[in-house]
Amino acid sequence: MNKKRMTPVHSLLLSVATLMVPGIGYTADFGLQPRLSTGVMHYSFKGNGSDLAVGSGRASTEDIDYDDQLVFIGGGLTAFYQRFFADIYFQQSAEGEVFLSETPTTFGFGIHPQRQDFSVSAGYSVLPNLALFAGYKYGKTENEGTIFDGVDAGGNDFFPNGIAIRQEFEEQGPFVGGVFGWNFGNIGRISANIAVAFLDADERAGQQVQGGELTRTTTGDAIGVSYGVGWNASITDRLSYAINLNGYNYSFDNFSGTTFNDSSNSDRDINIDENMIGINLSASYSLL
Questions:
Q1: pTM of the model
Q2: Which burial class, exposed, middle or buried, applies to 267 when counting CB atoms under 10 A from its CB (0-12, 13-18, 19+)?
Q3: In the chain, what percentage of residues exceed pLDDT 90?
């Protein structure tokens, strides 16, 4: 059996997919390659102007502002043909745990964030060390928890029985970018990429309060940047691995929608900043 060899072009396309999503490898003119990945991300969510504290006729505007480390697993599939590639990828995090305390009131709330990500993309190697790509991505963050008992500035019970809360934040839209790679002989390849995403966002929040449930829906948009560096190499003719450091910075504004206390549509002074940096290890296997 002839041994497959990774050409500079295929090595570059391998790097593109590896950096956009956890790792991929390929060593022939045409191929199909599934992969599995795992890692941990440092996820930061800051929602200025999110009124997540309403009850008993009182209202308070509170900001959701937290950082958490989320472990994740993912899987995907990539197809290569000469200078072209197409890729699909899904990632799911485990449930985190965060406690938030607010002032001047003394109440706080605990939440359990989870994160999902999905992307489809295609790319083309314009030079042996340079490739361009474009695609569509979807992400969803779920924050569920409870507002704990506390007192307001006058010493009155604010939430005597606690309030169950939830928030869903979804983003989706197209992205474009490029990647540059450096080969180290037959050892492996280091690559770096950057991409710009044009995203629309939907935020939905709900609270179980005395007398029923209060809900809110808002929409916004953002232009954000994602980036990554990584190393990928072959283990055998068909099996390869990748280690990557990826991140993104998205800042959403231009929100409009309904509030908990007002069911009418209106522009809302909300800004949501979402940042992530993560490290992952992936393994992929060439079927063809």
A1: 0.79
A2: exposed
A3: 36
Task: Please name every residue paired with 64 in a beta bridge, in sequence order, or none if there are none.
Answer: 47
Q: 3-class secondary structure for the chain?
A: CCCCCCCHHHHHHHHHHHHHCCCCCCCCCEEEEEEEEEEEEEEEEEEECCCCEEECCEEECCCEEEEEEEEEEEEEEEEEECCEEEEEEEEEECCCCEEEECCCCCCEEEEEEEEEEEEEEEEEEEECCEEEEEEEEEEEEEEEEEECCCECCCCCECCCCCEEEEEEEEEEEEEEEEEEEEEECCCEEEEEEEEEEEEEEEEEEEEEECCEEEEEEEEEEEEEEEEEEEEEEECCCCEEEEEEEEEEEEEEEEEEECCCCCCCCEECCCEEEEEEEEEEEEEEECCC
Question: Over the stretch 105-118, which tens digit does the pLDDT of each residue have?
Answer: 445 667 788 999 99
Give the separation between CA 110 and CA 271, rounded to whole angstroms: 21
Query: How deeply is 26 buried, as exposed, middle or buried, from its count of CB atoms within 10 A (0-12, 13-18, 19+)?
Result: buried
Domain ranges of the chain: 8-285
Residues 85, 39: Cα–Cα separation, whole Å: 24
Give the CATH class of 8-285. mainly beta
